[in-house]
Amino acid sequence: MERELISHLAHADHPIAAPITEDGLVRLLTRAKLPPGARILDLGCGEAAWLIRALTLYPEATADGVDISERALSGAAEEAHRRGVSDRLRLHRSPAAEYSADEPYDLVLCVGATHAFGGLAPTLAEIRRHLRPGTGLALVGEGFWEQPPSAEVLTLLDAKPDDYADLGGTVERMESAGFATVYGHTSTRAEWDEYEWSWTGSLTRWALDHPGPDGDAALAAAQAHRDLWLKGYRDVLGFVTLLLGLTR
């Protein structure tokens, strides 16, 4: 079963696609205090839950969502139509690193998708390329080490110790790239648990409803992910979303 379909099924009951509640998402977007007519960009938008919510909060804004998944973008288009914001949302099927636009943006998001650029530092450089000079804001969600990972956890995650920093180090990495922290949301254990139980549970439910080779593959993927979480990175890997302004 292809990874894109697994991800789509796993996020069916948690379309935010990050360990953040709806209330946390709204707080972050509200703190941006965007001007009338703001332009918003999401690099790695998935099903565009962040953009659709932003367009409901800022009724004069327009937005662009970029993702490589045709399935996710189709879901985004359907949800935007259902929420009545499709006329202000443009969706682009493209690698995030290859996207370009003629005008800068007032807010650029990349939440849980820094892998699309090869890590945090190149993600921040790409975000800067799209931001309106002086006043543009970024909303970046990234993992951090809640505690030093063991060798076993690093092996399970196929990660290196310096792939992430601790929370303070993560803030420093973003600020050393020429940003200042305006606001932040550190995901709680309850938010992580809700996200992971939704991810594994949605996929498991689909597998049970679709017996056969695809169902077996989906169930195996759900169980593997659950083991990676419960026996590996739970309470080790954290997640923080920072609202950033430009300093230089």
Automatic annotation (TrEMBL):
Protein name stated in the entry: Methyltransferase domain-containing protein
GO biological process: methylation
A Gene Ontology molecular function term of the record: methyltransferase activity
Pfam families: Methyltransf_31
Keywords: Methyltransferase, Transferase
Domain Methyltransferase residues, every copy: 37-138
Keyword Cytoplasm assigned: no
